[in-house]
Amino acid sequence: MAESDEAGTDRLDIDNMYLCGSSFTRVSLKDSTFRDAHLVNALFEDVDATGLRYENVNLTDAKLHNVNLSAVQVSYANLTGFGVTDANMTDISLTNVNMTGAVIENANLTNASISNCNINGMRIEGVALADLLALWKDTHGA
């Protein structure tokens, strides 16, 4: 919905009401607040959610498809079982993360950097990274 659209400007204060099965089409909810709300199985389609903020939200089993998450910040998140497929992750940063058991396949890691990390048991193409680093040090005197 364009900002210039001439539509009703009624403000609603809805409390303790069930709107299950409702449809909202060409509606602006700019600067709206949802508190203690249930959006189970809700569908958001063709939505401009620039600047949307989530605080203390359960997104278990949420599906995000064809989504622009540029410059998104995620902190204090449980991403157990999180999967990313066919994504452009150029210039991402992962800091203070637990990636135990993580799998990276068919990835372009050009200019990627790993530092100050626990690499116990980490493998690249089936070879222990600790062994590769030890061999490098032995052959290059580093």
Low-confidence residue ranges:
none
Structural class: little secondary structure
- What is the rounded Rg? 23 Å
Strand line-up of the largest beta sheet:
1-2
In short:
It is built from one helix and two strands; from the N terminus they run ββα. By secondary structure, the chain is largely without helices or strands.
List the helices and strands and how they pair.
Blueprint lengths: L122 E2 L2 E2 H12 L2
Antiparallel strand pairs: 1-2
Explain how this protein is built:
The protein has 142 residues and is mostly loops. The protein has one helix spanning 129-140; strands spanning 123-124, 127-128. It contains one helix and two strands; from the N terminus they run ββα. A two-stranded antiparallel ribbon has the order 1-2. β1 and β2 (127-128) form a beta hairpin.
What key phrases describe this protein's structure?
2 strands; elongated; 142 residues; two-stranded antiparallel ribbon; 1 helix; little secondary structure; 8% helix
